[in-house]
């Protein structure tokens, strides 16, 4: 059993095993990093107001204010107690179970492989490279999840959710007025369920995708980038339904008055392959001119099609000048019209 009151900047090291971490602070910042080390380290770099109580018992390390319990944490709205602040950094074994609660403070949790729970009243949270199950509950705080491979559950009143390169098998999100932007990079089937009352929902799926899709909005607009899906309803309620690939995964998105957009990742973007369709037959004479350009050939023509010819300008007076003009002057690059954004 270890207990210590920290009222100012201080560093502590815990050599005994730590399997669970509890942090609860008001204002300031908390930063938790999972490491391959067996010990845990704590640094309090700034402190204002009442002291933090640090305890370690039976493998559970707790850093919190004495009057800020975890139970009923989201109801702790006594602003008289907000006159405090702390900047806390912790390094714990990657397999540690982490629980972080913030009131008006920012939280960053990264590199943790164990389960992670984040609760916030008004503070924003950033979750990076978490591989265990993740749960985030906020009142008005925003949550950004980057490269999270574990299952993700999000609940909020007005906070926004942003998922970047998410590859977990499950994403559940519920919000009243917060928006949701979910960018998925999963290799296998995923189960996605997003619900909002007035928030906007945008989902970007891999191409090719594998999911049974049903997206509904009562009065918002819809946008769909997949040919295999159908959009129903011209006025009022809109619905997007259909099957992508084998339909192994599931995508359910519902909002009452918010808009819904289904986007797709460009295929093989990392390999530099073109996004658009093959050039029309009339573009054949331009091929030799674009060939020497190497990787910038097809891609640059799609981007520069509205600005004029993509072939290099011939030297004045050259006998090749005349043939070059008609070939480049005509906006014959139909590939930009076929490009799906």
UniProtKB/TrEMBL annotation:
Family matches, as InterPro entries: Toastrack_DUF4097
Biased composition (Low complexity): 278-293, 318-334
Source species, domain of life: Bacteria
Domain called DUF4097: residue spans: 134-262
Pfam families (UniProt xref): DUF4097
Region described as Disordered: 264-341
Name of the protein this chain belongs to: DUF4097 domain-containing protein
Organism lineage string: Bacteria, Bacillati, Actinomycetota, Actinomycetes, Kitasatosporales
């Amino acid at each position: 059993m270890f207990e210590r009151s920290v009222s100012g900047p201080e560093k502590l090291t815990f050599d005994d095993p730590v399997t669970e971490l509890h942090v609860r602070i008001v204002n300031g910042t908390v930063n938790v990093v999972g490491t391959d080390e067996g010990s845990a380290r704590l640094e309090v770099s700034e402190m204002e107001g009442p002291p933090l109580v640090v305890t370690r018992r039976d493998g559970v390390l707790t850093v919190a204010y004495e009057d800020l319990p975890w139970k009923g944490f989201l109801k702790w709205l006594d602003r008289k107690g907000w006159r405090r602040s702390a900047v806390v950094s912790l390094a714990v074994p990657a397999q540690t179970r982490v629980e972080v609660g913030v009131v008006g403070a920012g939280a960053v949790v990264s590199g943790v492989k164990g389960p992670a729970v984040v609760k916030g009243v008004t503070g924003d949270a950033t979750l990076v490279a978490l591989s265990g199950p993740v749960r985030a509950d906020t009142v008005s705080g925003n949550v950004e999840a980057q490269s999270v491979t574990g299952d993700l559950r999000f609940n909020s009143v007005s906070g926004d959710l942003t998922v970047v390169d998410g590859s977990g098998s499950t994403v559940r999100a519920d919000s009243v007025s917060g928006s949701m932007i979910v960018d998925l990079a999963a290799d296998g089937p995923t189960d996605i369920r997003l619900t909002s009352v007035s928030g906007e929902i945008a989902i970007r799926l891999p191409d090719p995708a594998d999911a049974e899709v049903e997206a509904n909005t009562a009065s918002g607009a819809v946008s769909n980038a997949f040919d295999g899906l159908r959009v129903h309803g011209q006025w009022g309620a809109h619905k997007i339904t259909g099957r992508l690939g084998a339909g192994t995964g599931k995508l359910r998105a519902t909002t009452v008055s918010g808009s819904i957009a289904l986007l797709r990742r460009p295929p093989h973007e990392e390999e530099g392959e073109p996004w658009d369709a093959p050039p029309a037959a009339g573009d054949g004479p331009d091929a030799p001119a674009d060939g020497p350009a190497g990787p910038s050939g097809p891609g640059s023509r799609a981007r520069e099609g509205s600005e004029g010819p993509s072939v290099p300008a011939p030297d004045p007076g050259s006998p090749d000048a005349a043939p070059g003009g008609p070939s480049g002057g005509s906006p014959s690059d139909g590939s930009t019209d076929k490009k799906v954004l």
